[in-house]
Amino acid sequence: MPFEIRRVYWIYDVPGGFDRGGHAYKESEEFIVALSGSFDVELDDGEQKQTYQLNRSYKGLYVAKAMWRRMTNFSTNSLALVLSSTDYDPDDYIMDYQDFQLWLKGQKMLTDNLNNTSAPINVQSSTFNVQCSMSNAVSYARSVFDSSLYELNKMHDAEGNLTFIYQNIHVPFEINRVFYSYDIPGGEERGGHAHKECHQFIIAASGSFEVVLDDGTNKRTVTLNRPFWGLHVPPGIWSSEQGFSSGSICLVLASHGYDEDDYIRNYDEFLDYIKK
What we know:
The chain is mainly beta. The chain is built from 2 helices and 20 strands.
């Protein structure tokens, strides 16, 4: 993605026939994924309109700033994941379409006065080289009870529910990576490793599953079955996920980019590591 992630939120339980959005951002950029089900994203730059259908978990839509956007045609049990470049700021929103058109004219006049050429940017599928910031102040877990279960914000609305997370506020780290597991067959397990540096925040965005935590002495099992609950797993804890229900989606926010050297995948090596 062509921006750093400042905020993550997901929209769920959207009733049939309802839309979401119908606004523009002055500065915020977004990346939208249909984690479950399908929906349409209608984009309008003030001159042209285009509709994108999102219906695969491995496809996402980048939405630039200064773009009127509306999400519509939600299927049953659809789940929309949105990654944002900014924290929530009501002054960044333009909620009325006529105000949006007037704002665009003002931006064009300002650009013309500065003798710059204003042109829309055509963003296509691209490969971005991302360097993730690595915090020097990493807290290490010594016990499975250092892993905390959090109840997140849940915004009720007739158009569906929304849960959001800010980095360094709702999670105690900067969000440098987001991944999600889906289409998990019954009886399968995920994880089965520990991290040396990376913090993780695990959410059952859909369905339910168990997270088994192990510090080398104690074990603890935490059930995640609500999209507004999240489990913080610090580095130094062996963890795995099991007992996935049908249609479950495991959403994970991570403090670090992927680094194979950060993983401990052998349990005996994990026991040796935590003794150091």
